[in-house]
Structure formats: C-alpha cells, structure tokens
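Hi there. Long-time user, first ticket. I'm pasting a complex I've been working with (about 697 residues overall). I'd like to know whether the download I got is complete or cut off, because the file seemed smaller than I expected. Thanks.
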Amino acid sequence: MASLLLQNIAKSYGTVEVLKDIDLDIEQGELIVFVGPSGCGKSTLLRMIAGLEKITGGDLYIDGERMNDTPPSKRGIAMVFQSYALYPHMTVYDNMAFALKVAKMPKAEIDQRVRNAGKILQLTDYLDRLPKALSGGQRQRVAIGRSIVRDPKVYLFDEPLSNLDAALRVDTRIEIAQLKENMPESTMIYVTHDQVEAMTLATRIVVLNNKTHTIAQFGTPLDLYQRPENTFVAQFIGSPKMNLLPGTISAAQDTTTTIDVTAGGVATVPVSAAGLPSGTEVQLGVRPEDFVVAQPGDAVIFEGQASYTEKLGEVTVVYFTPRDGEDSVIAKIPGIADVSKGTQLSLTASPDKLHLFDASGHSFFYK
Amino acid sequence: MNPIILALVTVVLGVIACVTYFFGSNWVLDRIYPDTGPNAGRNINRANAVRPWLFMLPAIAILGLYLVYPVFNSIWLSMMDRSRENFVGLENYRWMIADDKFQESLFNNAMWLIIVPAMSTLFGLIAAGLTDRIWWGNIAKSLIFMPMAISFVGASVIWKFIYDYRGEDQTQIGLLNSIVTSLGGDPQAWITIPFWNDIFLMVILIWIQTGFAMVILSAALRGIPEETIEAAVLDGAGPLTVFFKIKIPQIAGTIAVVWTTITILVLKVFDIVFAMTNGEWGTQVLANYMYRMTFIDGHAGRGSAIALTIMVLVIPIMIWNIRNALKENA
Ligand SMILES: Nc1ncnc2c1ncn2[C@@H]1O[C@H](COP(=O)(O)OP(=O)(O)OP(=O)(O)O)[C@@H](O)[C@H]1O
Ligand SMILES: [Mg+2]
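Hi, the file is complete. Here it is re-exported in full:
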C-alpha cells in the first residue's frame, strides 16, 4: 500500500563504501527483487529501508514521507529474515501476535488476525507449537505470518528461501507468488541469489554491481534478459552466462552495425553506432541459447572446435576451446546434438538476438 | 627442610607421579590390547572401553576417600555422644530441632538463600545487559568481576574496614561511618544491629558473586541470535520489552543455572560469618554453627547432625542444577 522512493542512497562503513548512487522509484503493488553477486550490498540496502542500518547518504521516502530518521517500527514495514528469526520461546501463535500485543491491539482483533494468517499459511494445526517443533518450511511460513498480521505497507524479504531444500523452495516460491497475487496492493522487496526466483517473482529487478557499488540496471525481468544495459547485467542474468566476443566495427550504418569478430566471423547488429570510425573495438554479446548451427549461406559469427560437451537431454551444451586470455565460448543446442570433443562447428544467430557493447561495457542499444 | 622447598618438591613429585600414571597405564593397556595383529579391531574397541576407567580411577578413588567416606562417617558420628564413644540414636537431632541457635541459623540461612542469589543474579543481569552497550563496558566488567578473585576471608577483611566502628568519642575509620558522620549522622556499630547486620554480611557475598553472574549471563546474552532482536525492534518493541520479553526468556536456562549455583554456595556460607561476627548478634548460619559445635564446643555428634542437615538441603538443589546444566548443553 505504499510507494518507495530512494534518492542517491549511499552506505559506507567508515571509509569502506558499500553502496552509492542508489536511485529507485518503486510503485505501489510492485514486487521488486534485488539480485547481485555475494557481498554486493543487497542485504545492506534492504536493512537500510527497514531502518536496521543507518543511511549514510541520500533520502528514503515511503509514501512521500522522508523516513531516514524514522525508527524501524514506525516505517510501516515488515521483514522476513533469512534465518526466520522466530522467537524460540514463543508458540507460533505468540510469535505472530507479538507485534500486535506490543501495539496494544484489542485481544479479539489480535486473535482474529493471527487465526486468519494461520489459515492463509496452513498453520492452523501448529499454532500452539514452539518453533523448534516445526519443519524448515513451516518456520518460513510463520516468519511470513508474522509479517502478514501486521498488515504493513511494505514487505521486505531477505533470501527467505535459501535455507530450504530444492523441492520446498519451488513450492514456497509459488506460495509467495500466490500470496502476492492475493495482496495486489502491498509492495514487496525481495532479496535473492536465485535467478529463477528473481525472474519469476519480480515485477522489476534491481541488479547491484559489486565492483562499482551501484545499480547495474533496474528493469523488468525480460528487459534485463533481452536488453541488458551493460556487460555486467548481460553476464549476470542467464545461465550459462552470455558470450562476449571481442571485435571491431567494420561498417556503421544508420540502423545497423557490422562487426568483424576477432576470432573470425562477422555479424550485423540492428543498432546504430553512427559516428564511430571503423576499427573501433566493441564486444559482441550472444547468449548460448541464441546460437544456432549455421546452414550454408548463413553469416558465420563463430567457428570453433568443441572441447567439452554436456548432453542434458533437453539441450546439449558445447564448450569451445578458448582463445588466449578469453573465456570459453558456450553454445546451447536444442535436443541431443551429434557433437563430441573435436567436432568442428559453425554458429550463427538471429540479428535481433545479438547484443553490442562498447569497450567499457555499455550497450549500444541505450545510446 | 625449608618449607618452600618442601612444597616445591611435593608439587613437582605430584605432577611427575600423575604424568607417569597416565602414560604408564596407557602404555600397559596398549601392550595388553595391541592395535596391530589379527585382532586389531577388537583390541581397539576393548582398549577404548577400558581407557576412561583407567584415567578416572585416581579421581574416583580420591573422591571416594575424601567425600563419600566422610559422609558415612558423619552419619555415624551424628548418632554418638560428646565422647564419640556412646551410641545415642537420634538424641543429637532431637537437641538440634529444639535448639534456639539452630533455629536462628536455619532462619538466617533461609534469608541468605532468598536474598543473595536473587540480588547477585539481578545485579549480574543488569551489569551484563548494560556493559554490552557502552565502550568502557569491558573495563566495567573487569572491575565487577575482580572481587571473584578475592577469597571470602580477604573480602571480609576489606568489608570490616567499611563497617568499622570505634566508640562514640573516637575518630571513625570505617567508610560507612565516615559517610554517615560527614552527612551529620551518628556513627553506628553496623554489624551488631539485629536483622540489618545479616543484610550487611550478605552484601559482601553479593559483591563477590555479581561478577560470576555477570560473566555467565553476558556470554548467554551474546549467544542470543541478533536477528530475533532485530525482528522484535521491527515489531515495535522498545529496549525494555526487548530485554524482558525477548532476551530474558531466551536465557532463562542460564539464569536458573546461575541462580542455583549461587544458592548452593550460599548454603555452605561460612567464611564471611566466621570472619565478620563469628555468629554473634544473631547472625549465626548453619555452617558456622556446625564448626562451632564440632571444634569449639567439641561435640562432634551435634556438629555432624548439623552438617547432615546442610547436605540434605543442598542435594535437591544440586540435582536440579545439574539437570538444568545438562539441558543447557543439549
Ligand atoms: N559492519 C560492517 N563493516 C564493514 N563492512 C561491512 C559491514 N557489514 C557489511 N559489510 C560489507 O558490506 C558489503 C555488503 O554486505 P551485504 O551483507 O549487504 O551483502 P549481500 O549482497 O547481502 O551478500 P549475500 O548475498 O552474501 O548475503 C559486504 O562487502 C560486506 O563485507
Ligand atoms: Mg545478504
């Protein structure tokens, strides 16, 4: 039930800068996911929004009200911790009721809210149990229930599923998606390592860069996949990561640019690099799953010898012998392809699946 | 021989004897059950079954000699008369129950039992809670802990100076009296004031034990997951609610262990009373009375009866304490 505005938020511990120039405009009802490599500051940013960590620069607004110096409990937020952080000495019921009791809500209303949350989260049979007598998934649901009963403006989740096993993770992810669907008004911010979680849950994703301590890109999941703004996002989203082939501009037309790939091969990308002289160094991005085996007459983008293959049934992942100082080029070919070590392959890709970055890693698409 | 040299030689010989025993017995065990050859696996299992007993044997033997045997001897003695020669049955117990001084001791012990553990734990908890939040907390902790290093008699000597009283017309050197007189009051002979003198003696033990409670409770407080506290802060709880509703319940087990440990210590309280008042002015306690009966009045039978009373009172608390400690570790 709230919009969030982060302006120029920065965080440093002493002289160590952890985050800077964080600008986010989050609308009511969105589910925003923070992703990024370990240590990039996802938790820190979330904790600053919660008020558990001091904001050392910039302004935080919730519903237009500046919140930098508002105590955590007055910000209208609720948080689900990675470790669940249930009160071990309280029953499930009391865990959920604690915040309401502190707020001196009438007993009858507390009871009604707790039982309602218990019903939504299928915890009705466990209300009298202590947390230690619950499974990981049930504890997770209690932690969520503790947020729901408070009916907060903003929900914050810090890697809520990372302690669950793979199968339970999928179930709980779907439950969270349904929860969100039933509460279209509420705003949620969700931190995760897991790309699938990010792609499936988010209305928009924030990718944080651990080298520059800034936002690498803020956009919808498909934006990030189809139109990464820079090589950091390009290689962070998608698995295996996007191939970056060094090359030079051979011809810059009005709406297309032709690239000479250094490893041999040419590609024509439908973006404009107008004004740049031929010979300018660029990086051509191709996702492994966008490579297709070239037919006679196709423009070959990459040619090489397979050094290793993984046949997963659904796809065949081919790793090519890397050139000096470069990463292995990877291609994902649908089905069980007749490729093994030593097979020579020529690959191409549809022009609209190609990405072009300048030498410093910025996408030409956004120029 | 010079007593210092004698002591040194004894210590060195004792250590050598211990080391020799452990190495030697272990060596013999390994010869009997070699861990090579056809039965290596079976031998290792057998040796491992025997080894703990081998190592615990000296401790068990010494504890048996100095703890278990005296208990039975005390039971026997408690049914003998002053000469330790004639069996009198339960006569000593009958005397004890009717004795005024015994009843006074029992009542005083009960007071000690309620007040000292409660206050030590309370102050320890407050100190532990506060010292974690200030930069000079570790200095404060060391200061509070220091009395633990002083023997009870040493502490009593220090407090004797605090409670000291020198007749109306003399200069008061006691700290408490100099404070009172500087505020315009009359000097008091503190340790002779009935009822309050008990409290003044308890203060000494509280002063000593607060450090113990603080150290243990502070470790327990640090063991509380930080996130449960953050969650409570987000839930709107203030510092006091967090302390009483989130922190204390999570360290309840440790509080119980600290409480009962001090309780057991209090049941045996002797040195402080012995050094400060020797049980005069209505401050007698069981342990001191037992000592007085046995060694001053020379009636080992009555003394033993009092000793057994103390033991019977300690045992249930001891069992409860050990249970709690085991639960903590589980
Ligand atoms: N108290 C502190 N003092 C100094 N640096 C800190 C402190 N707390 C965190 N950091 C640093 O801040 C950075 C961001 O930490 P944060 O926990 O937000 O990362 P994260 O993105 O959540 O990582 P993960 O995915 O592993 O949970 C890290 O590099 C960490 O070393
Ligand atoms: Mg984190």
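A couple of notes from our side: Residues 250 and 278 of chain A are 5 Å apart (CA to CA). Residues 166-182 of chain A form the longest helix (17 residues).
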